[in-house]
Amino acid sequence: MKDLLIQFLKPITLLTITFTITSLFIVYFQPRPRPGGAGGGGDTIMARSFVLWLHGLGDSGPANEPIRTFFTSPEFRTTNWSFPSASSNPVSCNHGAVMPSWFDIHEIPITAASPKDESGVLKAVQKVHAMIDKEVAAGTNAENIFVCGFSQGGALTLASVLLYPKTLGGGAVFSGWVPFGSSIIERITPNAKKTPILWSHGIADGTVLFEAGQAGPPFLEQIGVSCEFKAYPGLGHSISNEELRSLESWIKTRLKSSS
């Protein structure tokens, strides 16, 4: 079975289960060989691009690095990848236990109406923006920068791309949620509203409920942001190889060539 299914998670077990999910990436999500290989034909010169991956609660950046091996298309030969780790902080939903966390989470499962740590989210957004700014300063076109994240990292992805002042290549949210209220809308610039969003969510998710994911597209539609929402029947709080293949295709069609 290709999809990893996690149901009925208890808050105190999140850390252990997150590490289990990551280790299973290596086993289940190795790319299949493709005709032509990574050095495939075509005379198009791809410009430098950047993919920033934000992990979930209790996880780490390096543990998610196997994801990059999934992107075998020639278009990704000039892609720079980054898998940062969150600092360790007390997390309310785990009874104050200290673990890698981008911001505080008050309850599990997360619903559309769950309380939000907006101040913590905004502090985390500043860190993500600093990473993006560094890549732009290194010469990467902002429209070739893609921010992606799973669960808590997905929520941070959404906040980061919406609050970045420039148009980015895109933001990909996996099993995430909207981590702030409507008061944030006035801070979103016209350029940020042009950044497209890919949102993927498992219908069987028992940690970030599907209803929390479903609340995303209406919120984005309200502010004029394009969102492609994909629902995956039978998928729990995890990422499937089908989602990653979809992400590869989605990014590939948005990469800009060298001028």
Automatic annotation (TrEMBL):
Q: Which keywords appear in this protein's UniProt record, sorted alphabetically?
A: Fatty acid metabolism, Hydrolase, Lipid metabolism, Membrane, Transmembrane, Transmembrane helix
Which residues are listed as membrane-spanning?
Answer: 12-29
GO BP: any one term:
fatty acid metabolic process
Highest taxon above the source species: Eukaryota
Which Gene Ontology cellular component terms are annotated? Answer: cytoplasm
Q: Which InterPro entries match?
A: AB_hydrolase_fold (IPR029058), LYPA1-2/EST-like (IPR050565), PLipase/COase/thioEstase (IPR003140)
Q: Which GO terms describe its molecular function?
A: carboxylic ester hydrolase activity; palmitoyl-(protein) hydrolase activity
Keyword Glycoprotein in annotation: no
> Which Pfam families has this protein been placed in?
Abhydrolase_2
Ranges where the Phospholipase/carboxylesterase/thioesterase domain occurs = 48-253
- The yes or no answer to whether the keyword Membrane is present is yes
Family affiliation? Belongs to the AB hydrolase superfamily. AB hydrolase 2 family.
Q: Indicate what this protein is called per its UniProt record.
A: Phospholipase/carboxylesterase/thioesterase
Give the source species. Answer: Macleaya cordata
